[in-house]
Amino acid sequence: MHMHICMPTNDYYSVLGVAITATPGEIRSAYLKLAFQHHPDRNKGSSEAEEKFKVVAEAYEALGDAEKRANYDRHGTVKPQATRTQTYRDPFSGFDPFVGFGRNKQKLVTEAELEDMVRNIDGEGLLKVCADLHQYNQIRISAGTKLLELVSDVGNLLIIIQRPGLHVDTMGKTIEKLLGIIPNLENPNELMKILNADIGENRLGFITGGILPIEIKVAAEKKLIKVIEKSESVLNLDALLSIATNTLCYGDKLRITMGMKAIKQAGENVDELERILNATRYTHRLGMISLLPAEVEEAAGKKLAEAIKNKKDPSFDFNWLISFATSQNYGNELRIAAGMKAIMQAGKDIYKIMAVRNADIDEFGRDGMLPMEVVVAAEKKIKKIIKKADSMLSTDELTELSTHQHLRDDIRILAGMKAIQKAGKDLDKLTKIFEADRKRHTWGNLPAVVMATVQKKRNEIRAQSTLENRIAKLDDRRTDKPLGFKKPETCSISPKKIRKNRNR
Q1: For residue 259, which of 1, 122, 244, 412 is within the disulfide window of CB 3.0 to 4.6 Å?
Q2: Number of folded domains in the chain?
Q3: According to the model, what pLDDT value does residue 440 have?
């Protein structure tokens, strides 16, 4: 039975429960409170509530407008006079606290139309109604329920959950349905589809996460970790590394799992291990920063170090090994393995071994680029080669080693003494060693012991040479030959004739 509530036209203030002196804000506040209480959506099938709602709307129609309120206060009526049906309008056409901002009654959907959409399997239409803020809540909820009855695959559920304006009831049911599906998924691609749905771009164009509800993301990551751990090979190296290095969109546990799986798949392949280790490094003002989890980086470094040690064929590029040994971005174990391998590949080539040793010196002439173990091994091999210098190194090469300021003193002394020994009594070679003490207008490049030895030997050779010259001169004086004259020729005149000539 329809109940009509009669209200005197001069009692609008009583209808809203405000004083005659109430401000426009107080009138609007009272109106919204009563409208909320008697709204038809909250009182389904109640004709009394609907009639009260119309009376409240009529009161606000009169008092909400300044001109109409002034006429009402002055004359006790609103001019021009109008019937209730003429003055009634939906009070929430501008603001509806239940379903959104404004409702266009020409676009309202009925239950019958929803049933038609279900029969036609019109999922897009149902989703549109469910996300339409202009529809009644009950219609939106009904549309969401019917839509979820039609949809069971992960892809469509993700489309629903990401739809802007989705009713909170439908959102909750969609999350519940996804949480029921995720534990049964064994395909990593399906799980990755869920996780990738959480990634998007912000207004500045940067990649960011947080689009999906957190419980969906956590459940998908947990399940993917289990699938990855028990499977042999489910994703390629690029896919594994893309997850392991994405610090914004994935959790640490998933990133570590993916990184460890990538290392396992790489095996003893040096190129792939290096690729994992260098994955997504970028230059920072403090140096190179890796986006890999620390646990993955450490494990990859150890595995690469083992691969370098165990690989017996000399297939590594010498410069590649030195670059690893001198890089401060890798672990000490990997740097030592690369340096030792470089020394082993150098063999007895003094120039390559010196290249390893010189790699320890930075551009400013300071030591410390190589691990100490590599420096010690390189110097030990240099010393071993110098001891066999009779057949391997020239005097000039030994002299150069002796003047190397970054080698240990015992090696420099050994090289200098070997150079002196090899020079023998060759004064030119000894002089060349002596002059090597002076480089670029500075003295003291040779060790003091070597300098003193070569100087002493030069003096001995010069003294010996002077003594030999003097002895030679003395020997010449002791002979019967006139010094500086030739032997006189034999005379053909007889002695008797000579005496006769003298007497004359």
Answers
A1: 244
A2: 3
A3: 52
